[in-house]
Specification:
Layout: H1 13-24, H2 27-31, H3 33-39, H4 43-71, H5 75-81, H6 88-120, H7 124-127, H8 132-137, H9 142-159, H10 162-189, H11 194-202, H12 211-224, H13 231-237, H14 245-275, H15 286-298, H16 303-337, H17 341-361, H18 376-404, H19 406-413, H20 422-448
Helix pairs in contact: 1-10, 1-14, 1-16, 3-14, 4-12, 4-13, 4-14, 4-19, 4-20, 5-6, 6-9, 6-16, 6-17, 6-18, 9-10, 9-16, 9-17, 10-14, 10-16, 11-14, 12-20, 14-15, 15-16, 16-17, 17-18, 18-20
Length: about 450
């Protein structure tokens, strides 16, 4: 365990890549990406997403990571060290976001634990009964207990430290996750009727391409890559100077995109086979994962085994993301108050329970609390994902453009290697990224209040 005042580090490039990829690969890859890909033209959405990831996404990833490595600080301290007096709100937003996300993320992580437990007990038939998920999620006791179980799992890993906890866990869980995704995708494709779903998912349909395809792909890419939530600053601060930053970021992009692609290949053909080719059956969010897919698995041969493997995969994805969120919170508190890792972890665990329990009960005894007409969990999700994260990312861009200059980022990248995509980075930062972030901010708000549909 790290001693007080000593900055943690990843052991090398592999540890960094696995940890950041683990942060990027989360529930959104599994329960939202397949839905968006199927809705917005299949292969054309995949191509749009990939182009945005290696341009728009790359520019933001390299920016936050380089500032973190240069300052060796988490967001608040990094902004301060870089002299961003007027933009300091960006550092605070980067710090507040993970502290608000990790509690409700642990609520959903608890739901995943519950479903995995039921599949292991061979209770798959119960999961497909009418209203099972709504009855479970509105309960006052079980969801809270599973929230605590998931939160303790995350707490233990983060308590072990960066190298022995976060890095080691990511090195185990990420390869396992990819292997399981390949297994389920391969098995699904042999299900009768699944090939039609695979065609719907993979073959470009230009009739479904529109400006909303770009907006949806941009938003999904932004939320998937852990941008604007302090994690990239924090993990960048743990990166050794000799690690090739550009290559590492490229590998993270590839892993995140591959997992999202495999998630679509798992889910879209399976839902098509189950629904006899009805694309309207495919939905997004908790209803896809906890209602539609259990019914799909129940209709398949060896469905219980597939259910176990799938929810184990989802648990790994949720764990790696929650671990990165909690680690970011710990780093922020350590930089701010100079406390030991054990004290920081305990404080964050208490915060998870204080905010997470109301989020859980918001579907039951506290369902009368509806800020902006949303459940408590959805309200926190709206405030962080739709508002705070795009604004914090805009602040980071302005910090580079107006305060530090592009040379700060370029010099940091070139410490370890030649910056091969320097021209593309500069073009994106000057002309694309800030307008793109404003589009993400506005479209997220308009989607939540029902003016547009994404």
């Amino acid at each position: 365990m790290e001693t007080k005042n000593k900055r943690s580090t990843f052991s090398g490039q592999l540890g960094y890549v696995m940890a950041v990829a683990g942060s990027a690969v989360g529930l959104g890859n599994i329960w939202r990406f397949p839905y968006l890909a199927a809705k917005y033209g299949g292969g054309i959405f995949l191509l749009t997403y990939f182009i945005l990831a290696v341009t728009f996404g790359f520019a933001l990833l390299i920016s936050e990571t380089s500032l973190g490595r240069k300052t060796k600080k988490s967001p608040i301290a990094a902004y301060k060290k870089l002299g961003a007096k007027k933009l300091r709100i960006g550092g605070w937003l980067n710090a507040i976001v993970p502290m608000l996300i990790v509690p409700y993320y642990c609520v959903v992580g608890g739901w995943v634990c519950k479903y995995l437990f039921e599949y292991i007990k061979n209770n798959a038939a119960n999961l497909v009964s009418n209203n099972y998920f709504s009855n479970f999620s509105s309960s006052s006791i079980q969801p809270v207990l599973w929230l605590i179980v998931f939160a303790i799992l995350v707490f233990v890993v983060v308590l072990l430290g960066v190298e022995k906890g976060v890095e080691k866990c990511s090195k185990i869980l990420m390869p396992a996750l990819i292997i399981m995704a390949i297994f389920i995708a391969g098995y699904t494709l042999f299900t009768p009727g699944a090939i039609e779903g695979a065609k719907y998912y993979l073959i470009p349909d230009f009739s479904r391409f529109s400006i909303m395809t770009v907006v949806a792909a941009m938003g999904q890419m932004f939320y998937s890559l852990s941008i604007g939530m302090g994690i990239l600053f924090t993990y960048g601060s743990y990166m050794k100077k000799e690690i090739d930053m550009e290559r590492s970021i490229t590998q993270v992009e590839i892993m995140d995109t591959v997992v999202a692609f495999l998630a679509g290949l798992m889910i879209v053909p399976a839902v098509f086979a189950f629904s006899n080719g009805d694309p309207n059956t495919l939905n997004a969010g908790p209803s896809l994962m906890f209602i539609t897919l259990p019914n799909v698995f129940n209709s398949m041969a060896l469905g219980n085994i597939i259910g176990i493997v799938f929810f184990l995969l989802v648990l790994f994805a949720a764990l790696t993301s929650a671990i990165s969120l909690m680690e970011c919170c710990v780093s922020i508190i350590q930089d701010r108050f100079d406390l030991s890792r054990k004290k920081c972890c305990t404080i964050i665990l208490a915060g998870i329970l204080i905010l997470g329990i109301p989020c859980s009960l918001g579907f039951g005894v506290l369902d009368f609390i509806k800020p902006l007409g949303l459940s408590i969990l959805d309200f926190f999700d709206f405030m962080t994902n739709s508002i705070m994260m795009p604004i914090s990312a805009i602040c980071t861009c302005l910090l580079i453009i107006k305060v530090t200059g592009f040379k700060t980022v370029i010099n940091e990248v070139e410490i370890s290697s030649k910056f091969k995509r320097k021209k593309a980075y500069l073009f994106c930062m000057k002309y694309i990224v800030v307008p793109g972030l404003i589009i993400i901010l506005l479209s997220s708000i308009l989607s939540t209040i029902g003016i547009i549909s994404i």
